[in-house]
Every structure is written in structure tokens, then in C-alpha cells.
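Hey,

The postdoc asked me to send both predictions to you directly instead of through the lab channel. I've kept everything plain text so nothing gets mangled by the mail client. Protein one:
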Amino acid sequence: MAVQDVGGVQVMVCPAEGEALAGEQQAVDLLGDAHYQGASWVAVPVARLGEEFFRLRSGVAGAVVQKFAQYRMGLVVVGDIAAHVERSDALRDFVRESNRGGQLWFVADLPELAGRLAN
């Protein structure tokens, strides 16, 4: 995992392959790496998120987002989540509200993230 300047902000960009972000422990591990490397945001590809993350009832997304909020670090989900959103009104609302805030964003790609961070 490498920290990159994205839109003028230090972002730890996770590769598509690797351990899934499946709960609090993986979130804490990512947070530790990101903090050590001087990042203020972590970008996680959709491929690194299990189905449970997108099933809000499972509590996985809530637990992960809570850890990031607790450590004051932003989390960005990068990639196409259209299929997940189509299956769940609750997820669609969660994504819309998250994208209005400053803690969790869902973006299609890094150029979209760069545009958001630059503003």
C-alpha cells in the first residue's frame, strides 16, 4: 500500500488484491498503516470489501466506518457499487448520505476522488 498525493491530500491507496476489509480488526490494521505513512484518507477498492459490508444489517460497514471516525481518518470506497445499490434502498440512502459528509465517500475512481478532495 502506497500513499499518494490525490487532489493535494495524502491518501493511502490499497491495491485490489489483499485481505478483505471485513471488520474492525482489518480497519484498525489499515488505520495503523495509514497513520504511520502520514495519510489522512484511505482508499479501498470495492474488490477488498465483502458482501457483508454492503449488507447494512450485518453491521460490518457501521463498525468499519466507526473505527475510521474514531481515529479521524477518511475512508473512500473506490469502484462500481451499482449492483449493490440496486438491491438495497437502505444502502442507496447510506451511500447518498455518506457522500454528503466528510468521513466516508463512495467514488467511481481516483480522478473522481481527486476532484472531491481538491474542493
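Protein two:
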Amino acid sequence: MLQSEVISKQVRQALDEDVGNGDLTASLIQADQCLHAQVIAREAMVVCGSPWFDESFRQLSSSVSIDWHIQEGQQADSNQVLCVLYGNARALLTAERTALNFLQMLSAVATHTRQFADAAAGTGAQIVDTRKTLPGLRLAQKYAVRCGGGVNHRTGLYDGILIKENHIIAAGSIESALRKAAEIAPAGVFIQIEVETRDELAQALSAGARMVLLDNFDLPGLRDAVRYNRQFPGEPAILEASGNVTLATVRAIAETGVDRISIGSLTKDIRAADLSMRFYDRASD
């Protein structure tokens, strides 16, 4: 789970963006009025983002109570009540959009990730995210990937080395790029190199690569790369497939024997989950 300070900061920024110097419409409601509300899933989803949701209300009113009917990371059905809230009506209305924005976006990431993880289940291949995230929300989105059964790649440029085509060109060769990376890598930081052909894979393995990203290999190319890697002297390197992976293709890619499949769309191409929050009369329950 993310540190509470990170969640608090992200929520504060979102509320400041939305509320500014005050919620004009909420002033239509009596200042001391308290009401019940419930959040309903309008489609099936993996629920994710409850800490951000809760924090959105509590930054406006510490007395708001929230009773979750489903736990973080669990599957919700369409029309299922996710939680019930009670508290100051103005606070509920003012925080509503910010709270739902976090819950809708993070649930969408977790749900999308779960679909890919389920599609690859039983193959041994891990579903991995990328740095293609919404600015300012990377840590939240990567948390959602984990909730959905995926695995985080490096968080940013500071905690892993991924040598790509332009790095190789600038360094002069695959061998020289890997050698330089080994010289500068802090302890515990992984080094991965991207290759586009079988010949480049051979060069990378010969230069001691322990993690290799197979960029846009077709299925026969992936199977060949896996065989070559396993036959290469020494411990096999970790192979990661990447490039235009979809739900329709991920199973076949996983069955080639690669260790990981990285998918930018987990965090980049997201349609918010469909949720709604409605006030209701508790006496009618």
C-alpha cells in the first residue's frame, strides 16, 4: 500500500483543483444537514482506490463515516452497492467528484489488469506495467496494477536501467551499453536491454544481459528467442515481450514461454469504471 502521505497529497491537489476557494453549489444545502449516500457499481469491476476515496471526504469533514461492503481488490458485480456514507451533506457533495474520480480511474486500471492476468493465467508469464501513466498519478496507478494481479516494472528512471535503441546508438553498441550500465548501476538496481532481432538478442546475451526486452517480436520470433535463451550457456535471462499486446493476443504471447509481458495500455488507455453516488433515505432500507 502507498504511504498515507502520498495519498493525502494527491487528494489535496485534486480537491484544490476542483474546489478552489469554495463550492458555490453546495451552499444551497443547510450547513448542518447530514445525509446518507451510497456508491453503486454500474458495471462489473475490480474495486480499487478506497483509500483515496475515503481521504477525499475526510479532508473536508473528519466526521464522515464510510462503511465499505466490498474490500479493495475484490470483484464487484453490476448494480452492487460498494459503500454507504453518512455525514455533512455539503462535505459529501463537495468531495463527491474527486472521490469518484479516484475510485473510477483506479478501479478501471485494476479491472483491465485483472483481465490480462486472467488471460495469461497458468502460463507462468507475469503481466507488467510501464511508465506510460497519467502525470502525477503514477504511484496510484501502479498500486492499482498490483490490485489487479499485475507486477510493477520500474517506478521511474531512478530505480531501474532500461537500455533502449537510442541508448545503444549513443553508446555505440549493445556490448558497450551493457558494460557502461554495469559500471554505473547502484546495488540492487536491475539492468534490462531492449532488442528488436534475434541477432541483437544474441549480442545481448553474449554481453552478459540478465533481462532482455523483446520489442515487437512476432510469435515465431518469441518462441525462437525463448529456445535460444534456454540453450545459451549459463542461467537463462529473463525475457519480456512488449509491443501492441491486446487481450486477443496476450494468451498466445504468454504461451511462447516468455517470463513477462509488458503492457502500456494497463495505465494509458483507460476508460473510467461506471460508478454513481446517490443520497437516500436510510429509513427506507
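Summary for protein two, as requested: The two ends are 34 Å apart (CA to CA).

Thanks,
C.
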